Amino acid sequence: MILTVTLNAALDLTYRVPRLLPQTEHRVTQALERPGGKGLNVARVLAALGHETVVTGFAGGPTGETLRRLLADAPGPLTDALLPVTGTTRRTVAVTDAATGTTTQLNETGPDITPGEWAAFTDRYVQLLRDAQAVALCGSLPPGVPVGAYAHLVRQARARHVPVLLDTSGEPLRRGIAARPDLVKPNAAELAALTGSTEPLRAAMDARRRGAHAVAASLGPDGMLAVTSDGTWRATTPRPLQGNPTGAGDSAVAGLLLARDLPWPERLTQAVALAAATVRSPTAGDFDAAAYEDLLPQVRVTAM
Amino acid sequence: MILTVTLNAALDLTYRVPRLLPQTEHRVTQALERPGGKGLNVARVLAALGHETVVTGFAGGPTGETLRRLLADAPGPLTDALLPVTGTTRRTVAVTDAATGTTTQLNETGPDITPGEWAAFTDRYVQLLRDAQAVALCGSLPPGVPVGAYAHLVRQARARHVPVLLDTSGEPLRRGIAARPDLVKPNAAELAALTGSTEPLRAAMDARRRGAHAVAASLGPDGMLAVTSDGTWRATTPRPLQGNPTGAGDSAVAGLLLARDLPWPERLTQAVALAAATVRSPTAGDFDAAAYEDLLPQVRVTAM
Lengths: 304, 304
What we know:
The structure is a homodimer of 304-residue chains. Chain A has helices spanning 38-48, 61-72, 115-129, 149-159, 170-177, 188-195, 200-209, 248-258, 264-280, 289-295; strands spanning 2-6, 10-17, 25-27, 30-36, 53-59, 78-84, 90-97, 102-107, 134-138, 164-167, 183-184, 215-218, 224-228, 231-236, 300-303. Chain A has 304 residues and is α/β, with parallel strands linked by helices. The radius of gyration of chain A is 18 Å and the shape is globular. Chains A and B meet through strand 2, strand 3, helix 2, strand 7 and strand 8 of A and strand 2, strand 3, helix 2, strand 7 and strand 8 of B.
């Protein structure tokens, strides 16, 4: 199975409003609720494609209960191994403006995790690694979790020879990358914040020097750039896609995981096709299965 | 006891952000959760001032459970007589911009109430009226509740000689007022929408002609205007108040209810002082008890 870790899971709300105007009152014309946090998004894509997937991390309070109930309804072989905590799972609110098609995001911070809960989680994580063919560590850290959390989890996975992918930002990424994960998947902004360089190739090479065995950077409409020990590649769709990019990065992570035993050009093809099929989907964060099949033969991979 | 009806109760979230910028991502620096909906706000003020208060209306789903748990913690003699429903209690999100002190409001629509649930509610309402010294009907209607709901509830109260105050807007106000409530408390915008007149005195007189025995209009920093069979008065604080007006109208309703047996000038004084003490409170929707005592002798009432 593939294990995904979401330390700061969220109940994601999407509010559609006719037009978002600050300092006014809005009637929400459509409200959607779904399990969120990068690792849960990755897991839902993997499970929907039939891959045995286990999610772990924390869930607590009424929002945590709602999240777990929604997760139980997700299609495919997805197992919930979230650890109950006394704090309350955060909400995120994505306000979509129907007039402009743009999104404004509001993210709660997350629950205070106690030292005992963090210790219980690391025990659970080590147990789950036994059956894991790969593990993805995804997203932000809730208050109370040590800033070096991902570095610790990367080392635990590597000690057990489980390939580990890290997808986070800021200081947790900086520290996590130093523990030598097999792969990091930053976006352009995260890569620039890490390295100080806004030139993706230069920044990805710098990220490798910081400890990542490989770097697969998601560059939005410009596809993905991979810098690895086997070579450097750029993968793109034939033309820029129209749609909602929410969740495209998480789908790219799912693609990198499910094609983990394939050569890099094919791995990138899967990742870019899944990301593009997510942009194409009418529902934010879901991927369009037919578009995914259509797009697979269209992705161009260029060695650099 | 005083009965307040909140057909579209809400779990009110207040999100503080450093600055609200559409089309960007925000970290919520403070997230507060409280029971909401006008009738619940009115009830919390009454109970905090020691008045026996019963709340009814609908609550359902995980948000409904959270709302009821929070309500149980409210100070004072407040009894929860909300009716459980299969739908889910709505959320509202007030996004406060710390840089400008302004608020942007996002309101979910509310649960679909079935005809059976509405019938069960009207039975419950009639039972509760037996012990009620006054009843307030407050706020918007959730989907499924007939648009003439307030007209029906006004008639039931009047048939049992329970004084009834109506605080709503739009079509439910238009229909409710025709059933001859003892008092309506529109704000300036609601009054203008009802009557087509933006001149408050003219509009309030028109509202009386439409069926309300008395009209007490809340005019924000301009205080209140009452048009009654005993006379017409204007009540104001000595100077405009700085602060957050959220909930001030609901506190005014609480003041009108608790002083229901006093002459109109004293009744307006209570309403304006409570509203002003709510504007003064650092927490949106709460009133500052010390400010309330301070403000009571300062309110000026002028016969017109």
